[in-house]
Every structure is written in C-alpha cells, then in structure tokens.
Amino acid sequence: MSDYLPGLAGVPATKSNISDIDGEKGILSYRGYPIQELAKNSTFEETALLLLDGRLPTKSELAGFTQQLVADRRIKYYTRGMMKNLPPTGHPMEMLQTVVASLGMFYSASDCLNGSDACDDLDYIHNTSVKILARMGPIVAMWEHIRNGYDPVQPRADLNYAENFLYMLNGEEPDPLLARIMDVCLILHAEHTINASTFAVLVNASTLANPYSVIAAAIGALSGPLHGGANQKVLQMLEEIGTPDQAEEYVDRRLAEKKVIWGMGHREYKTKDPRAIILQELMNEFIEARGGDVNPLFEVAKAVEEVCEDRLAKKGVYANVDFYSGLLYSEMGIPADQFTTIFAIARTAGWLAHWREQLSDNRIFRPTQIYAGEPLRNYVPIEER
Amino acid sequence: MSDYLPGLAGVPATKSNISDIDGEKGILSYRGYPIQELAKNSTFEETALLLLDGRLPTKSELAGFTQQLVADRRIKYYTRGMMKNLPPTGHPMEMLQTVVASLGMFYSASDCLNGSDACDDLDYIHNTSVKILARMGPIVAMWEHIRNGYDPVQPRADLNYAENFLYMLNGEEPDPLLARIMDVCLILHAEHTINASTFAVLVNASTLANPYSVIAAAIGALSGPLHGGANQKVLQMLEEIGTPDQAEEYVDRRLAEKKVIWGMGHREYKTKDPRAIILQELMNEFIEARGGDVNPLFEVAKAVEEVCEDRLAKKGVYANVDFYSGLLYSEMGIPADQFTTIFAIARTAGWLAHWREQLSDNRIFRPTQIYAGEPLRNYVPIEER
Question: Is B36 in CB contact (< 8 Å) with chain A?
C-alpha cells in the first residue's frame, strides 16, 4: 500500500494530454500551445474545440462547432420555470449546479455509458459537450434577470460566445473591447491541469455517470471557498483599502498578521501567473481606451501590486489571474457573486475535455482508507447506554 | 512522486473512523458495530446518528434527532414547483441530484465554511445533516407522483423514516413487515467505506463547498452504471430468466461467455456479503409470512443463487447485497428505476458522516497529473491549418 498523503498532494491521479504548467518558467499551455498565444490569436470557441479535440480546428470544423454552439444557446421554458422556483438569495454557483444537473434529464445518455468499458461514442461525446458548453453562459445570464424578478433576455445568434453572454446579461450589445476582454478571460480560465474540480470530473466520470451530472459535481467543487471565488475577495479587498495611498499600510498590516493578500501567489507558479500578465495588459489597454475614466479601484489595484511586488517577489509570490479579473468583470456590469460562475463557464471547456479523456481509458476511482476507528464491539441496548 | 495507479486503486485517500470491512471474514462494521447487530437491533434513525456522532445515542439524543428528522420532512412548495418543471422521462437519480443541489440555495452556510481551517461548527453540521437526510426520502417519494402527473402525498409525523417513505410513495400505510425490511435495507446501505461516491464527498467537501452541493456530487457519482444501479439489473436479469428451471442454463451460458451475473461477487468480500445474508433471511421471513404467495421471481432468484453457489463459491464469488434488495423493493411497489435513489437515501447518512469527518481535519484534494501531451508548439493561423 502507498503512503497516506493528505489531499493526495503530489499523487498522480491521471495521465493527461490536455494542459501543462511549467511553474518555474511561468508557462501554461493547452494542448502544447502557450496561453499567451491563445489569448492573443484565438477565441473561446476555438480554444474550447482545441481542448476537446486536441488540435486546432480547420476553418470548416470551427464554423460547424460555432454554429452548433449558437443553436444550443436556447434554454427550454421548463428550465426557466424551474429557475423561477429557486430563491433569489441563493448563491449563483448553487443555481448553476442545480440547473446543469437538471439538463441531463432532458437527454438520454449514450449506450456506451452503460457498459463497463471505455466509451468511444465520439459523436455523442462531442454533441453533448456542445449542448453543455453552449448553455452555461445563457443560464448564468438568465439567472441575473430571474433573481431580480425580470424575464430573461433571449440569446442572439449573430454574436460570439462572450458577446452573447454580455448581451444576455446586460440587455445591450457590449462594448467591443470589453467583449474581447471577456473572450480572453474565458480562454484564460478554460483549463488548468488537475485541481479539485477537475479531479471531481475524473471521479464522477469514472462511474460512467451522465456528463451533466459530472459537470454539476465539478461546479459543486469549484463553488468551495478554498477553490473558486478568490476574485470576488480581491474586489472586496480593494474596496476595503479604498484609495491607492492606503495600499502600503494595508499590505504590511496583513503580512504582519500573516494573513492572505487576495489575488497574490499561486501554488503552481514560482513566477508571475502568465494569465495575470495578459490580463494586466488588457486592463491597461482598457484604461487607456477610456482616457483614464475608470473605476478608481484600478489605481488601488496597481498600488497594491506595486507594494506586493516589493515585499513578496523575492519569495516567488506575484499577482495571479484572480487579481485583475474581478475588477474587469465589475466594469462589465457583473455583480461580484457571479464571478465564480464565469470561471465555471470557462472551465466547462476543460472539464469536458477531461470527461472525454477519462472515458477514453476508464477505470473507476476507488482509493482506499486507513481505518482508525473503534475495534469491533457489541451493540448496547438503549436502556443500558 | 508516487507511482501512478489508475483509479488510485489501493492508494489511501483518507484516515477514517466511520466504517470498516474485513473482506476475509465477511464483516462490515459501522463505528465498530457489526452490521448484523445493527440490522437486528437498530433503526435507520439510530444508525444514522451513530454514523454521524460516532457512538450509539442515549434515549433523549435519539428522541431529539428523530423529532428533528420528522420536522424537516416538509418540502417547500418552491421545490415542488421546481420538480414539476423536470421532465418525467428523466432518471430519478438526476432528479435527486438536481433537487438536493437546489436545497442549498434556501439556507446560508456556516461562517466556518468561509475560512481556510477545519470547520468545527458542530451545531451547523448536525442541523444541516438532519435537514438533508430528512428530505431525501420525501423527495424521492414525491417524484414518483409528480412524474406521473399527480400531486405528491404529504408526509406524516407519526411514522418512522422507512414507514413515512413508503407511505409517501404508495399513499397508504405500509405492511409492517415490509416497512421493517425497508428499515433494514436503509441500515445495510447507509455506509461502506470509501467508494467512488464517498470519495466524491471527500473531494468536494475539501473545497469547503456547501453540504447540499457535496451530497449532490455524491448522488452524481452513485448514479453511474459502474457504481449504483446493480439491483435494477438483477431484477431485469431475473425477469429475463423467467422460471427457476431456466436458471442453470442461463448462469452457465453467461459464465461461458465471460459475462457478469448481476448481484454476484463484490470486490471487497471474499465470503458472502454479510448484508446479503441478512436480506436473504428477511426475504425468507417475508415469503413465509405470505404463505408463499409472492412474486414467482423469488423462486428464480433462489435457483440462480443455488447454481452460482455451486459454480462460483470456490472462487470466492457469492451473492451480494444487490441480489435480493431489488426483488424486495419491487414487492413494496417501487419501480426499478427508483432502486438507486433508495440506495442514495440510505447512503446519505454515511456521506454526511464523511463530510463531517473531512471538515474536522481538512486539506483540499489536489492530486497531480502525468502530462503526456504535445510539447510546447506555436499557434498556427487558421488559414495555414
């Protein structure tokens, strides 16, 4: 028997072809392509298909995939009726887990998910992946209206994934630069090797559960405060700091108290998170485009990062992807409790790629336990306890 | 780095005090108490509290717990409204995952699930465990009516868990012997160390996700054909065999084809599954009480087991708990596609115990991967692909 390592830290749980991190050099790659190149040249649609299929699509493959994604944007009125029965005070991640789980009830699973072997019904896998991915953005956007008592905005077929999401969310065509920033944010969050939510995908997929149920499980894992949700906390932190001149005092106080500076540091990277560098550039582009007329918290963020760089860079702690994404989402009119749902929309592409990979060479997860409880003992009648 | 073991087979993923299996001797124990003694002396309510708290309750503890379970049987009309928007053709396990995930939206989580340390808010953990466990049976029973287009039956406060479940399912007070058999079935399925669904609990709980979302993830894992669902297949097999005299031919043909005999064998036991022995006794008691006037499939089951014992016992393959449970559920008027939901109702007790144990000494699950994909490569413009 292997050693017991809490949290299975460092224990390989899968062989994967999907993404890789070089933490020393600060490289994240999807299917071999560095994230910088994808952020610069690709779209969320293309990146999602790259993650699923393992290679960059041809023009006609991408057109077909995009068309399918548009067609599957429509949400049934049953689902809308269901959502209207959910309490507006619930967390959007719980809503998303609920709705995604329910979608599986509308579609029958492939027969290949009934056998005990690997599933190789690639048409089913592809079409179901589209069905799920296409609906994630619309569901999140619909909830923003439904929880406020309004009818949702219908999707549009002439917009790309990111644009349609922002359109359904705000009811108006998005600013092109912000739409491109959302597109890049979706690319940046689409995949990140094996973390708790992706691991949840592997575990659930290995039972041959239907993919809606598998993605619902992953949404549950991502909803945990230790996993998703840091960008919401960055925004709260910046609001608490309030002005750039307060940044130094705040950071030094938190460090002295050995408390976390939200959005700083990532267990996988010894350098600055490559995704943070990309977002920072986009943020600067956005500030410039607006002639500096932006949320004053951007200046607070810059001041916090400057102080942190001075204090923490020598320890290999730099800003991570969450440090900027929340601020940018907030400029798009997105409330803070929806930040993690955007993470989930993006990561669904990676989760589905892992679902497919798991099915291609499946073995049910059944680790063991070290029993540390009571030895065998006899039942004691209630009168004698 | 550890070796890569597909499915983490044999890799310890937790230290646990909850249950233990001695596969050589055929002993399953909850908190040290052998399953035989619990099946004989305990109730599902008492066994659930034993699993949660780690010790047999006093009279007043059990009374308090039972009272709470009764009070939490009521289901909000929002939930009913949501269920009415789910398609009747969907699998009940998908319905159950959906509804349990939604319940978390109605209740706020403890602050202790926001920190990065272990959660020790035992009142919250206890009360939430009751909230979830109490509603599992009623939700499953409600679905049986809703999917058929009828209003659900309201719960009754004067019945125990098993009785109330059967009452809500069939709209009439259950036969006392069948109610006791259901009670024992719930005890027998309440816990079984670390399998895929319980492991899903650990993974999701480790992110500090809310417990409704954790149990929803586990329901998803249990819904997989490789995990739950074997008792449904046993019933189909017995129906296919049809008469006792066909048993020998069927078994020998399946064995010659190297195919599974459903309900036979269990990876954890080298002897007969102790739970199968208990169910077999109850089955015989039931047949006797009915003066033999029972479903003819009981005789088919006996014949199949006799042939299997002759052919397979020398290989350590015996009937498991699934071999008899489906037949008995069917006598209670439960359709085959609801068998796995009953498994989920029972196992919720164990899942909640594991949720609590994980929080008491938490570390987020983050195993690693072996990257076997493409090396770094440059993005290729779409025209050049």
Answer: no
Distance CA A187, CA A196 (A): 20
CB spacing of A221 vs B227 below 8 angstroms? no
Residue from A183, A189, A322, A354 carrying the catalytic annotation: A322
Compute the nearest-CA separation of B100 from chain A (Å). Answer: 8
Residues B152, B262, single domain; the answer is no
Q: Would you call B82 an interface residue with chain A, using a CB distance cutoff of 8 Å?
A: yes
| Domain assignment present for A97 | yes
The answer to whether B79 faces chain A, any CB pair under 8 Å, is: yes
Is A379 within a domain? Answer: no
* B94–A contact, CB cutoff 8 A: yes
Cα separation of B365 and A258, whole Å?
23
- The rounded distance, in Å, linking the Cα atoms of B228 and A53 is 30
* B77 and B177 share one domain: yes
B58 and B133: one domain?
yes
Whether residues B327 and B340 share a domain: the answer is no
- How far is residue A263's CA from residue A36's CA, in Å, rounded to a whole number? 20
Specify the CATH number for the domain of residue B302. Answer: 1.10.230.10
Range of the domain at B264: 230-331
Residue of chain B whose Cα is closest to the Cα of A363? B7
- The total number of residues written for chain A in this structure: 385
Cβ distance A10 to B3 less than 8 Å, yes or no, reads no
Q: How many helices (H) and strands (E) in chain B?
A: 16, 5
Threshold 0.95, pTM exceeds:
yes
What ipTM describes this predicted complex? 0.96
- Asked if A208's CB is within 8 angstroms of B203's CB, the reply is no
Asked, for residue A9, whether it belongs to a domain, the answer is no
Residue of A nearest to B111 (CA): A225
* B-contacting residues in A 113-132 (Cβ below 8 Å): 113-116
Please check whether residue A40 lies inside any domain of the structure: yes
Tell me, yes or no, if B126 is annotated catalytic: no
B123 labelled catalytic: no
The CATH number that applies at residue A28 is 1.10.580.10
A299 vs B382: CA distance, rounded Å: 38
pLDDT digits (tens, 9 = 90+) for B233-278: 899 999 999 999 999 999 999 999 988 899 998 888 988 899 999 9
- Give phi and psi for B15, each to the nearest 5: -100, 130
Percentage above 70 pLDDT, chain A: 99
User: What is the reported pLDDT for A230?
Assistant: 75
CB B19 within 8 A of CB B275: no
Total structural domains in chain A? 2
Q: Judge if A99 and A217 occupy the same domain.
A: yes
Whether A60 and chain B come into contact, CB under 8 Å, resolves to no
CB contact under 8 A, A363 and B15: no
CB contact under 8 Å between B364 and A7, yes or no, is yes
Give the pLDDT score at A226. 85
In order, the DSSP letters of B297-355 are HHHHHHHHHHHHHHHHGGGT--B-THHHHHHHHHHTT--GGGHHHHHHHHHHHHHHHHH
d(CA B100, CA B204): 15
- Chain A contact for B255, CB < 8 A? no
Closest by Cβ to A213, choosing from B84, B87, B94 = B94
